[in-house]
């Protein structure tokens, strides 16, 4: 496990634990936690807060015969098969398997120009998740944000004006962040990026392309 | 069948002799070591009941957990926006899942209440919001990596401390935390509910994870 320097914040972890975020955000948070034991421990702590809230909740009486009905339900077996995924060497974190495949080779990329490729993942419509492929040394289009954007590095690294993000690092950017991420020169960079609003591009051309790219 | 009478020997908390009559509220601490011990013993009791479900498909252990937790899960779901009938249905599913997944419960990482909360939350997202919830890759126990009693004891104690710390929060902040978990706060409002005293329990879980990683190698 590489040294992860950029982590989830409490706000996102609490919302993940409470279960109030859009699917795309749950996906990127689950992917980061799969790579980061520090955030995994923090997630369990916020789950413990949820457990305490549950314990303190006033009770609502169950229906008559509820226990017997539940035992009958148990007798029918699990509603969904209980998945135990075998440990394999996969280049993508496990939460992404259902969305993008197990390996980077499975990803269906579409070129968006200047060597940059993307693959939009199918999640609920309240936010967008996509994989981004940025050739070594290339820049992402200069952009600011209308809403919240999270970017998780899966392979390689990128730098912006302020910082360096390597594999497992998660960048949290809101409308106040205006930056130009550049993939480092040594390796192509692959990221998972999630937004809850469309990006606003600074130059004219990407803005025209925006409806087609869905970014 | 419903009146279970269970010993707690296997929980590792056998120092206190406890008579257990089925309802968490009925626990009597025989040597009178005070309310904290009773509450902690109750937590170990719940862990033991999950173990009995896992190892012996013990319906009386299940009935005891059901009596305590099902009415709370139902209330939690109704406060999260479910109708009474949907909450009843989903609660039964949550408790059935507890039975089927008893072998996946890790008492070094979560108390029983925490674990039931996570099952209820996931079913809530599925039933109320019709969304999938991606979960982190699980860290399964490696061979002979079943958590040791000390880790379990420590985590259950830390959970108790956390619960007390939450009760002692100013009412306004406690109310915010509860509303966050019932789904009443927007993402930006949640920021005001963070800043909780989670350092101790986080460090404990972190240690348990490190030990687990070590044995998996």
Short recap of the structure:
The complex is a heterodimer of chains A (215) and B (217). Chain A is built from 6 helices and 12 strands. Chain A has helices at residues 10-18, 23-35, 37-56, 66-75, 97-100, 204-213, and strands at 110-111, 117-121, 128-134, 143-145, 149-155, 158-159, 164-165, 170-173, 178-179, 182-183, 189-195, 199-201.
CATH class of chain A: Mainly Beta
Major pleated sheet of chain B: 2 strands, antiparallel
Average pLDDT score of chain B: 82
Corresponding CATH superfamily of chain A: Jelly Rolls
Order of strands side by side in the largest beta sheet of chain B?
Answer: 1-2
Unreliable parts of chain B: 1-33
**Tally of extended strands of chain B?**
2
Structural commentary:
- The complex is a heterodimer of chains A (215) and B (217).
- In chain A, a hairpin with a 4-residue loop joins β6 (158-159) and β7.
- Chain A is built from six helices and twelve strands.
- In chain A, the strands form three sheets. Chain A has a six-stranded antiparallel sheet with strand order 1-2-3-11-5-8, with helices on one face. In chain A, strands 9-4-12 form a three-stranded antiparallel sheet. A three-stranded antiparallel sheet of chain A has the order 7-6-10, with no helix packed on it.
- Chain A has one domain: Jelly Rolls (Sandwich), CATH 2.60.120.10.
- Chain A is elongated and about 65 Å long.
- By secondary structure, chain A is an alpha+beta fold.
- The two termini of chain A are 31 Å apart.
- By secondary structure, chain B is mainly α.
- Chain B has a single domain (9-216), classed as Rna Polymerase Sigma Factor, Chain: A.
- In chain B, 59% of the residues lie in helices and 2% in strands.
- Chain B is built from eight helices and two strands.
- Chain B has helices spanning 35-56, 59-79, 84-100, 112-128, 149-167, 171-181, 187-190, 199-216; strands at residues 18-19, 28-29.
- In chain B, strands 1-2 form a two-stranded antiparallel sheet.
- Chain B is globular.
- The N and C termini of chain B lie far apart (44 Å).
- The model of chain B is unreliable at 1-33 (pLDDT under 50).
């Amino acid at each position: 496990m590489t040294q992860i320097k950029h982590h989830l914040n409490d706000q996102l972890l609490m919302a993940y634990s409470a279960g109030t975020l859009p699917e795309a955000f749950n996906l990127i948070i689950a992917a980061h936690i799969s790579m980061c034991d520090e955030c995994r421990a923090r997630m369990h702590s916020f789950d413990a807060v949820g457990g305490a809230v549950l314990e303190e909740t006033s009770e609502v009486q169950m229906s008559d015969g509820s226990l017997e009905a539940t035992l009958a339900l148990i007798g029918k077996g699990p509603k969904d098969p209980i998945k135990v995924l075998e440990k394999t060497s996969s280049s993508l974190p496990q939460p992404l398997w259902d969305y993008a495949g197990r390996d980077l080779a499975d990803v269906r990329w579409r070129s968006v120009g200047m060597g940059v490729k993307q693959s939009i993942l199918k999640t609920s419509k309240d936010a967008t998740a996509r994989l981004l492929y940025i050739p070594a040394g290339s820049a992402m289009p200069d952009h600011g944000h209308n809403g919240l954007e999270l970017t998780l590095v899966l392979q390689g690294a990128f730098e912006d004006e302020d910082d360096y993000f390597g594999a497992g690092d998660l960048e949290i950017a809101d409308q106040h962040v205006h930056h130009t991420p550049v993939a480092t020169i040594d390796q192509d960079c692959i990221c998972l990026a999630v937004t809850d609003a469309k990006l606003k591009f600074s130059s004219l051309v990407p803005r025209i392309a925006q409806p087609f790219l869905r970014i | 069948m419903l009146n279970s009478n269970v010993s707690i020997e296997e929980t590792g908390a056998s120092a206190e002799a406890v008579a257990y009559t089925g309802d968490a509220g009925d626990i009597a601490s025989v040597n009178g070591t005070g309310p904290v011990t009773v509450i902690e013993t109750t937590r170990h009791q719940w862990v033991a009941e999950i173990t009995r479900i896992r190892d012996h498909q013990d319906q009386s252990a299940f009935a005891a957990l059901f009596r305590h937790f099902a009415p709370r899960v139902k209330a939690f779901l109704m406060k999260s926006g479910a109708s009474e009938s949907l909450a009843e249905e989903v609660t039964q599913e949550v408790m059935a899942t507890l039975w089927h997944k008893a072998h996946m419960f890790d008492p070094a990482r979560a108390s029983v209440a925490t674990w039931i909360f996570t099952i209820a939350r996931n079913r809530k997202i599925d039933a109320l919001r019709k969304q999938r919830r991606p979960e982190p890759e699980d860290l399964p126990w490696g061979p002979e990596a079943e958590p040791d009693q000390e880790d379990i004891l420590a985590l259950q104690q830390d959970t108790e401390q956390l619960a007390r710390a939450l009760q002692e929060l100013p009412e306004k902040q406690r109310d915010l935390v509860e509303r966050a978990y019932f789904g009443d706060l927007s993402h930006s409002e949640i920021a005001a509910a963070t800043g909780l005293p989670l350092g101790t329990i986080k460090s404990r879980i972190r240690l348990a994870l490190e030990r687990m990683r070590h044995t998996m190698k």
